[in-house]
Design brief:
Length: 90
């Protein structure tokens, strides 16, 4: 069984608890990234980070299938982490 399939199985078993933890962590990372982007006056990065974070939140709130939720969560984490490092370098 591959890694994402194991994640899906765990997510399905503990859906609401996992959803709460994942939603909170990616929202916090998105908020920190947005705050740094605003501080650096990089409004494009604010909109990019907010769009990805809101898309992930929408997947969780709509309760789409586990694979879609997890993939969007990981995309959000990766994009916001990259944006965070870009902001820290400026």
């Amino acid at each position: 069984m591959n890694w994402i399939a194991k994640q899906e199985e765990t997510f399905d078993r503990n859906r609401f608890g996992a959803m709460t933890i994942l939603l909170t962590s990616q929202s916090a990372l998105g908020g920190v990234t947005a705050a740094l982007s605003i501080q650096n006056n990089l409004w494009f990065l604010v909109s990019l980070g907010a769009t990805v974070s809101m898309a992930s939140l929408a997947f969780f709130i709509a309760q789409t299938n586990a694979k879609s939720c997890l993939i969007m969560f990981y995309i959000s984490i990766i994009v916001n982490t990259v944006l965070l490092f870009v902001n820290l370098m400026m």
